[in-house]
């Protein structure tokens, strides 16, 4: 196996992953110089021990908010003994995960009901397109089938929506950097977008 490890190092090509992820992601990139370079950036800049520790206050704050929400729900149930109460643990944990990941990666929670619903729908459709069976990935000469079953159109729509969202996030970060002119790592944390803009 060690003599043939490079043969198994890459994932198969995926048309939709290349489209939705700009062909520049770490997960679907073929093994080679580019993959090693972005892995190095991810390891040293995004997921270094210092960077992970810098997000500790966010994780602690969001966990405290989650516990407080559960506590308030329980107190509300004790006040209204006549009504039955329950806490949707799945929803609470999904909200916690969403808020922590968004704060660490994008610098904003998207926790308002409208924003959260829009963001979750965007992610849901994105993941749905990525995991959809694409016959063209396995039998390239049958890729034309995706024009008729609507997959290409769905992927194109999702790409445009995702691209608009990411452009807005990047522009917000650029505008904020111009206003502040210097981001102080000691006083304020840098999210993933800030780190990537700095590089």
How does this structure look, described?
The protein has 199 residues and is an all-alpha fold. The protein has a domain at 54-105. The protein has 10 helices and no strands. α4 runs antiparallel to α5 and α6 packs across α9. The two termini are 37 Å apart. This is Cytochrome P450. InterPro entries: Cyt_P450, Cyt_P450_sf. GO terms for molecular function: heme binding; iron ion binding; monooxygenase activity; oxidoreductase activity, acting on paired donors, with incorporation or reduction of molecular oxygen. Keywords: Iron, Metal-binding.
Write down the overall geometry: globular
Elements, N to C (H/E): HHHHHHHHHH
pLDDT < 50 runs, ≥5 residues: none
Task: Tell me the total number of β-strands.
Answer: 0
Q: Which band does the percent of strand residues land in?
A: under 5%
Average pLDDT metric: 84
Number of helices: 10
Main beta sheet strand tally, sense and closure: none
N-to-C CA distance: 37 Å
Q: Assign a percent range to the helix content.
A: 55-70%
Structural descriptors:
single chain, 199 residues, mainly alpha, 10 helices, 66% helix, Cytochrome P450
Structure, briefly:
The chain is mainly alpha-helical and 199 residues long. The chain is built from 10 helices and no strands.
